[in-house]
Write a structure and sequence with these properties.
122 residues, 4-stranded antiparallel beta sheet, alpha+beta, cNMP-bd_dom
């Protein structure tokens, strides 16, 4: 899934947030005001007790809540120590409006996750 990599958002001068292994990044049902790019480490996405995905570096998560303004649909937990790049709603809207390639990568990520859900493969 190389063309959906978000590594350009994780440059050296970008502010990051560190979360230790086992730490909760956000919980299902919480309000959202940012998405995250994984700079390093692995993040688990769960709905209830069901694991939906284990995400590696250079992928995004938490974007759905910024797109539809609904509460978080899942819980995100650090599987390993992770370094995250938070992207505010304002930054996200700017990137989507000014960078068609970024918007397409977000859509491809959503489409891939939807296909996975439709297949019942977790």
């Amino acid at each position: 899934m190389a063309d959906a990599s978000f590594s350009l958002l994780t440059g050296n001068d970008i502010e990051t947030r560190l979360v230790r292994a086992g730490g909760v990044i956000f919980r299902e049902g919480e309000q959202a005001n940012e998405l995250f790019v994984i700079k390093s480490g692995y993040v688990r996405i769960q709905v209830g007790n069901k694991t939906m995905a284990d995400l590696p570096a250079n992928t995004i998560f938490g974007e759905m809540a910024l797109i539809d303004n609904e509460p978080r649909s899942a819980t995100a937990t650090a599987l390993t120590d992770v370094e995250l790049v938070p992207v505010s709603e304002k930054q996200f809207l700017f990137l989507v409006s000014q960078t068609p390639h970024f918007a397409l990568k977000v859509m491809r990520t959503l489409a891939q996750r939807l296909r996975t859900m439709n297949k019942g493969v977790y």
